[in-house]
Structure formats: structure tokens, C-alpha cells
Design goal:
The chain has two helices and 60 strands.
Length: about 700
Amino acid sequence: MSMCKGPRIWILAAFLAVFSAGCSSSDDNGGGTSDATAPTIISTVPLDLAAGVALNSAINITFSEEMNSATLTTTTFTVTQGSTPVSGAVTYAGTTATFTPASNLAISTTYTAAITTEVKDAAGNAITAAYTWTFTTGTTTDTTAPTVSSTSPVANATGVALNSAVNAVFSEGMNASTLSPTTFTVTQGSTAISGAVTYAGTTAIFTPASNLALSTVYTASISVGAKDAAGNALTTAYTWTFTTGTTTDTTAPTVSSTLPIANATGVAVNSALSAVFSEGMNAATLSPTTFTVTQGSTAISGAVTYAGTTAIFTPASNFAYSTTYTATITTGAKDAAGNALTAAYTWTFTTGTAADTTAPTVGSTSPLNAATGVALNSAVNAVFSEVMSAATLNTATFTLTRGSASVSGTVTYAGTTATFTPSSDLASGATYTATITTGVKDLASNSLAANKVWSFTTGTTAALGPLPVNLGTAGNYVILAKTQITNTGTTAVTGNIGISPAAATYIEGFSLTLDATECFSTTTPATLVTGKVYAADYNTLGCTTSADLTTAVLDMMTAYTDAAGRSTPDYTELYSGDLSGRTLVPGLYKWGTGVLINSDVTLSGGPNDVWIFQISGDITMGSGARVNLSGGALAKNIFWQVGGGTGVALGTTSHIEGIILATKAITLNTGATVNGRLLAQTAVTLNASTVVQP
């Protein structure tokens, strides 16, 4: 029986192969089409040119589609040291092939990994060219267990789109063969959800086979079967829950900001590029195929990583001096629900004549060092002096401890701000220590010069309302605008003001005097601005004003996106947008219209409580109307996100408390006052106004 079985199956398979070959091409009756697209490389672990690689690492390569596993062998996927082949085994799972060396790699040695053109996808298409990358080992083995740094949806999220995928970002590169529907599961109660698991960079993605159910609680779990590239497993299973909403996500993602910004000049030749999206993306769709950099018609070789909402393109070698490059993100980039960019996003930049060798620093933290009475449900934030490599910010490099005990949590990164969110409320009256290690790097691969360590002590209560919006370096300015800042009359501003990318000539009515350092200006009289005035063209004599403002504007836009993207409002269309005479408690408020304030509004809450107002239209305040605070509420915890086509108009002698984040203009009419910040993506106009930073 067994001797006959094989030939019979072979004959049947041959017949089916001939039959299917005859039916695979298109015909006039609408027949199917064959796959003629060559597979591409999405990511590798280690990255090209990586240094300090653990001696017991495996080597991963992730493809753009499912491959023919029979074509991935030790002949087509090789690792060599010089001309000497490294002995090992090749495995394949999902879209990732893994080369596992038979023994540890040598200390401080450079290796070359290569994929030949014999490697083919499931339809028989070969990669168009051999792919080669190099890495250098360190001096030690990796014995550190990986952790889950962040997830999407986040733990306890509500209103999750029914067609969402579920992502888990790890603290390091994982062995893709250990990430499967067995080790990465999603369940509804005791019912397992059918789906597929893919892996790219440091992100595992569970894509359900069909839409999730309406208004239903799901549990996602990563088991201890998940291992890193060195074979270290998670120490405990990682589990989180989320609740779906009632709709699918059909909104196309957009590119919120880039670094370098469009038309930037003097870019450091060792820079990486970053693109921040309006929402969480499918990491598997972000690769050197969908995120490209070219110089003229010449493609620049590099690697693409993704974390949070940020994709980073790291060139394989430094850019050329004084050269213009074009970066493009294609419509192949998709969000977690499978929605693609509506059009390719393209920008250009020009390099300078030097590399960036300046170490990043942590400019501020929240809570502050030695802070007391910290709310029990606080997240921990660190704002950096420049944009960082999101892939280096994770639960291995950003930790929180109570004594010698580690606090479980996730790490996210946006703009210039890293956030550690504990998995549960902190203990009452306890002292915690936050640490950011020298493992974090900027986009030029410069590390922190030393660990950043700070401590704080909790109070006895949790804050009401959502988590606050972190302004990053935009918080260094009381007024920040992109196109113009205009003043008439006797105005008094307390705090720094800045404009970028517009130049100092677009700051009008302040009688500016450039400081001897040429880094900032002051005003005449000095009481116009009790602080400094910065502009994008103040960048001489070694100043970093232009770069600092570029970062601040990036942070301003990131903060706006954060505020606008908060889901599941506590109050929707409250009072039809007319807040006149109302008292509002802490919470997330949402209006699809504008907001009108014709008489006094009171925000009543404690010093840690938070208000976020999501306003699709404009804010209009009548003359003499006021926003007042009671119960100890603080302006720094109030955020007005304004998306209207006009912006914000504060009437004569009106007063508002809080941070205004507007896509359009902010106008203060005669005698209007603000205790807060004015952060506009166009212009700010003042008229005998008073603006004081909180």
C-alpha cells in the first residue's frame, strides 16, 4: 500500500499542476491572474551595519509576502565570516526566514548574511537581486529576556475598529518562527479568534480572519513560547484586553510630520529619516520598498524600522555632502485596518557638510525629579533634546522601579517624548525611580552620554479625566506658530515665542533686537515679551535655534495629533457646543461642530485632573467671557484641540485657561488674556493682549 501511495499522489499532483497552469492566465471571461510580482525584503535582524550583536544571536530576514519555504536553505540563505561559511540551520515561518548558527558567533567579528536569487515566493517569483547585509558582534551573549514594549490597541482601549489588526512591539528583535497563532492569540471569552501572525522589525501582528464583533471585549496574549533572536523567552505571558466599538476603520492614514522636514537644508550626513503617521500602521507594510530614499534616479540602500506611529529609514552609509535627496512613502503603506495612504507622500532635503556627533539629552521629565503627590494613574514622560530612534526606546531602555522591584508597563514614543505607562495604578505614598539608559539613540545613532535617573513619590488619589497631552519641546514656548506672529498695542507675553519655518521678518509689532549671539531676539520695550524670541533663520555662530524650532514644531503637531486621536469621549456634542454659563468636570469632550462661549465657563477639578476638548470646528469667545478654574484645577492640564478652518477667536477682554492647539489661526482681540499656551499651525495675532505661560 505505502509503495503505491507515493506514485499515485505524484501523478495526481502532476495532473493538477498541468491543469492549474492552463487556467491561471487571464481570459476574456474574467479569469484570475497569476502573481508576477517579485518579493522584496522588509527587514533584517540584526540590521545592516549593526554593532555589538550578541554572540548567540540568530539572523532573521522578513519578506514582503509568503515565500516558498523549500527555496530557503543553507545554500540560499548563508552567513559567512570573510570567506568562511558559518554552519547553521534555516527555518521559515510566516514571512520570515531564520538562520540559527550551530554555535555562538566569534567575539568582535564582522559577518555577512546573504540571500540569493534562488529564493522565491509561493508563486515562483524570485527576488530580483541577491540581498546582502553585514553586522559585527560584541563580546557577550544575550541572556536578557525580551519584553513587550507596547501594543495596539493599547491595554483597556475602547471603541476599537472592527477591522483592526492587533500589534505587539517587543524590546528587541525576536525569532519570528516563535511567533505564530499558537504563541500570539486573541480570544473572546473562551473562544479563540482565527487569524494569521506576521512579524517585521520588532513588531508582531495578529490579523483576524474576519472583522471582530461589535462592542465586545477581547483578550490578546503573547505566551512564553515567544523568544528573541538569542533564544531567550518572555519570562511570563503578556496579556491585555480591549473593547471594540461599532464601526470599521475606513479612514486612510496620513503622514503627520517628517524629519528632516520638507526642503530642509544642512542636514547631517549621518542622519536617519523619520515619518510620523496619523495612526498606528501595519509594520509589515513599511519596508525599503514602501519607504524609499533616492538621489536623482539612484536608490539609497537602507533599512526601515517601525515603532509606535513612527517609521525610520536608516541609510546603509552616510549621505553625500551638499546633496539633495528625495524621500517617498508609497501607497503600499497601510494602517492596522488595511487602509492605504491615498497618495504617495514625497519630500526633499539637502545635506550639509558635517555629521551629527552631539549626544542627545533629556530636557524635561514628568513627573519632575523629587515630585510629590503624583497621581496614582500617572504615566512617566521624558522629553529629549532632539528626535530619537523610536526603535531604541522600549521597556529595556526605559524602566520604572519601586525599590528593587520592576514595574510592568509599556513604552511609546512620539515627537521627542517617550512615555512609560504602568500596567496598573501605582501604589499610594510610594517612591519610584525612572531610568533611561544609554541604549537610547538619536537618529544619527548618538547615545545618551549617561543614564538619566529621577525619582518621584505618589500621593493618595488618582487623577480624573484622560492622561495629559505631552507637548514635548513645544512646551518651551508660550507662543509657537508656523507662518506669522503679529502684535498691535501694548501686549505683555510671559515666556518664549518662536516661529518656524517662517523667518524673523514674519514676527511683526514687537520691535525686535537681535542678541549679540544671533541666537534670539529681545523686544522694545522688554515688557512686550518677558522671555526670548526665536525664529527659523536665527542659526548663526553655532546656534541650534533652527533645529530646535524644527523639533518644537514637530512636537506641536504630534501633540495636536495625540489630542485629536483620543478615543471614547466622556461627553459628545454636549450642549450642542454652546458652553456659555456651564460648569465642566474633568474628562474628554468631543464636538463635531464649533464651540461658543458667550458667558463665563467654569472648569471644576483638582490639580492633577485633566480636560481635553476635541473641537472639529472653531472656538468663538464673546467679549468679556471667561473660562475660570475652581477646586485647584491647573491650566497646564487643559487642552483645547481646534480643527476648524478659521481657528480660535477670543473676544475683547475675554479670558481663557489652558493650552490651545489649533490647525489654523489664533486671534486675540483687544485686551484678551490667556493663562496657557498658544500653539498654532498657521498664525497668532495679538492686540494689547496678555499671555502667560502656565
